[in-house]
Amino acid sequence: MTTRLTRAAAHVRPPAPVRAVHLGLGAFHRAHQAVYTMADPDWGIAAYTFRNTELPRALAEQDGLYSLQVRGEGEPQAEIVDAISRAHPGSDTDQWLADLASPDVALLTLTITEAGYRVFDDQDGTAIGRVLAGLRGRHRAGGAPIALVPCDNLPGNGGVLREAIRTAAAGEGSRFRSWIEDHVSFVDTVVDRITPAAAEQDVATAARLTGLEDRAPVVTEPFSEWLLAGDFPLGRPAWENSGARFVDDLAAYERRKLWFLNGAHTLLACAGPALGCATVDEAVRHPMLARLTEAWWDIASYHASLPAEDLADYRRRLLQRFSSRGVRHNLLQIAAGSSQKIPARILPVLRAERAAQRMPEAPVAVLAGWLIHLRDRPVSDPRADELVSLARSADAARRILSALDVTLADDGELVSAVEDYVEHLRLTADRTA
Ligand SMILES: NC(=O)c1ccc[n+]([C@@H]2O[C@H](COP(=O)([O-])OP(=O)(O)OC[C@H]3O[C@@H](n4cnc5c(N)ncnc54)[C@H](O)[C@@H]3O)[C@@H](O)[C@H]2O)c1
Ligand SMILES: O=P(O)(O)OC[C@@H](O)[C@@H](O)[C@H](O)[C@H](O)CO
Question: DSSP characters for 256-303?
C-alpha cells in the first residue's frame, strides 16, 4: 500500500507561519500563487474554499501538501508544494474572521472566478460579503493595513475588487469606510498558467511520480507568469524570486493576456464543441478553428496597440501551449461562465471592428457557438436560467446579444451575421461528421 503524502513522509519542513490568506482554494491557486509563495520560507498560507468541503479535508489530512504535475511534451515532472500551512472550507467562518483580523496576516489573494466579484443586495455567504466581514473584523481588531490581491481573469481586477468592496460597504459606518480607503490596498494582477481541473487518473500518476498517495494533485503546464501593480503595506513574500514581476501599469499585459490567450480559449470553447472538439489541443488542430484562431489574433493585434514583434512571438508561444498534449484542457470547463468572460475577452475587439464598419468572423463565431452551447449543452453560468431560456426563444441571436450589451442587439447586421453563422457551424459539423 502506498504511504499517504504528509510532511513527515515527504521530508518537508513544518508549516510556515500564516502571513497570507487565500479565498477560492482550487486548482489555479495551487499551481500559481502557492508555488510563487513556496520560494519564501517565511510565508505560509491559510487557504479557504468557497463551498468545497472535500478538498480542504484531503489537504488537511496531507498537512496542506499536494503534488504539482508539470506536463510539457515529455514525461511529467512532479514537485511537492508546501506553501499551504492550513486549508479550510469556506464554512469555517470563525477561523476566517480570526485570520483576517490577525496583524500577522499581510495579504489576501483571491481566485473566486469572474462571477465572484458581483455584489448582491444580500451579501450573506458571497465572496464579497465574506471579504467585507473579514475587513470589518480587522478594522475592529486594531485596523492593521492589508493588501488584497485578486488573481482572476478580469481587466483591472484590483479596481474591480475595490469597487465591489466600496459598493458592498455603502451602508457601513463612515469610520470603517474611511479605513478601507486608507488602509486597504487593491493590487492589480495579470496571472497566467493553464491549469485544468485534475482527472481521476492524475491520482495514480501522482503516486507513480512521487511514491506517495496524494488525493488532491494538481496538473499544470511548464509556463507561468505573474505581473502585479500595487502596494503591500505590511510586506509580501519574495515572489520575484520565482519570476513574478512588479510593474507600474498593467494595461498592455492585460490586453495581451485577456484578448490573445483567454479570447482564443473562449473562441475555441464556444465554437469547438459545435464542431465535435472536446479539448483545446484537439480544437487548435481542427482546420476551421485553427483558421478562426489566427483570424481572431489578427484583429486583436490590430486593436491591441502592442509591438508587432512581441505579439508575433506571443502568438507563436500560445499556439505551442494550446497544442500541447500534456495538459488536456476541457472546452466545457472554459465555456463555464461565458456571460462573464465574453465581455472582457471578445467584446472590446468586436466593438472596435464594428465601429470601423467591419464584420469580424471570429467574434461572430464566438457568439454563434455560444448560442448553440446555451441551447444544446449543460450550461454552467451564473445567468444560466435566463440565458438558456433566451437562447431557446424566437429571435434568440438578438436577445442573447442584448443580454451581453443592448447596443450590440441594435446592430441588425451583427444579429443577422450571428444567425447565419449558427447555420454555418451546423452545416460544417454535418459535413465533417
Ligand atoms: N485554471 C486556470 O488555468 C486559471 C488561470 C488563470 C486564472 N484563473 C482564475 O482562477 C479562477 C479559478 O480557477 P481554478 O482553476 O482554481 O478553478 P477551480 O474550479 O479549481 O476553483 C474555483 C474556486 O473558485 C470558487 N468559486 C466558484 N464560484 C465562485 C463564486 N461565485 N464566488 C466565489 N468563489 C467561487 C470555487 O469554490 C473554488 O474555490 C478562474 O475562474 C480564473 O479567474 C484560472
Ligand atoms: O479560468 P477561467 O474560467 O477564467 O478561464 C478559462 C481559461 O481561459 C483560463 O483558465 C486560462 O487557462 C488561463 O487564464 C491561463 O492562464
Answer: IIIIIIIHHHHHHHHHTGGGT--BHHHHTTSHHHHHHHHHHHHHHHHH
Q: What pLDDT score was predicted for residue 74? A: 87
Closest ligand 2 atom to residue 266 Cα is 8
Ligand 2 pocket member 153 (CB < 6 A): yes
The set of residues, in sequence order, having a beta carbon less than 8 Å from that of 193 and lying 6+ positions away, is 28, 31, 32, 220, 221, 223, 224, 225
Looking at ligand 1, which residue's alpha carbon is closest to its atom 20?
26
pLDDT per residue over 245-256, tens digit each? 999 999 999 999
pLDDT of residue 60: 98
Instruction: Measure the N-to-C terminal CA separation of the chain; round to a whole number of Å.
Output: 46
Residue extent(s) of CATH 1.10.1040.10 domains in the chain: 251-432
Domain 251-432 architecture: Orthogonal Bundle (1.10)
Banded model confidence at residue 162, pLDDT cuts 50, 70, 90: very high
- Give the position of cell 458571497: 126
Distance between CA atoms of residues 346 and 349, nearest Å: 6
Stated pTM of the model: 0.97
pLDDT, position 85: 98
CB 397, CB 417: distance < 8 Å: no
Residues of the chain with CATH 3.40.50.720: 3-246
What is the rounded CA–CA span in Å between residue 300 and residue 252? 12
Complex confidence, ipTM: 0.98
The answer to whether the CB of 112 is under 6 A from ligand 1 is: yes
- Give the pLDDT mean for 417-432: 95
Burial-class residue 308 by CB neighbours within 10 Å (0-12, 13-18, 19+).
exposed
Q: Write out pLDDT tens, residues 35-45.
A: 999 999 999 99
User: Mind listing the pLDDT tens digit for each residue in 261-286?
Assistant: 999 999 999 999 999 999 999 999 99
The whole-angstrom separation of Cα 327 and Cα 321 is 9
Task: Output the DSSP codes for 22-82.
Answer: EES-SHHHHHTHHHHHHT-TT-EEEEE-SS-SHHHHHHHHTTT-EEEEE-SSSS-EEEEE-
Whether 50 lines ligand 1, by a CB cut-off of 6 Å, is yes
Using the atom order of ligand 1, give the atom closest to the CA of residue 154. 43
CATH superfamily membership of 3-246: NAD(P)-binding Rossmann-like Domain (3.40.50.720)
Question: What distance lies between CA 259 and its chain's CA centroid?
Answer: 14
